[in-house]
Design a protein that fits this description.
- The protein is mainly β.
- The protein has a domain at 8-74: SH3 type barrels (Roll).
- Helix content is 0%, strand content 48%.
- The protein has a six-stranded antiparallel beta sheet with strand order 6-3-2-1-7-8, with no helix packed on it. Strands 4-5 form a two-stranded antiparallel ribbon. It has a two-stranded antiparallel ribbon with strand order 9-10.
């Protein structure tokens, strides 16, 4: 998987198509990522002795095939490529060739 925590991505499919956000968590085994402000659902939390029950909004994971990296130079969506610089493999944006952090 080419995505890392902190990457800016654009959603390309699903109910939140067109939204942008930062990756907060990467779930490698499931091929999913959690993106800030995307795929929000309401979760019913059961209360216990100290706190009452409530309905909270949480971010659900979204499959990596439904997101693309945001190009740092143009701001458009782009694929991720790899390049070797000084004996180190780095990620680059395919659209502009810019290095991704």
């Amino acid at each position: 998987m080419n995505f890392k925590t902190g990457d800016l991505v654009i959603v390309i499919a699903g109910k939140d198509k067109g939204k942008e956000g930062k990756i907060t968590k990467v779930l490698k085994k499931e091929n999913k990522v959690i993106v800030e402000g995307v795929n929000i659902v309401k979760k019913h939390m059961k209360g216990n002795g100290q706190t009452p029950g409530s309905i909270q909004e949480v971010e659900n994971p979204i499959h990596v095939s439904n997101v693309m990296i945001k190009d740092p130079k143009t701001g458009e969506r782009s694929r991720i490529g790899h390049k070797v610089e000084n004996d180190k493999k780095v990620r680059i944006s395919k659209k502009s060739g810019e290095k991704l952090d």
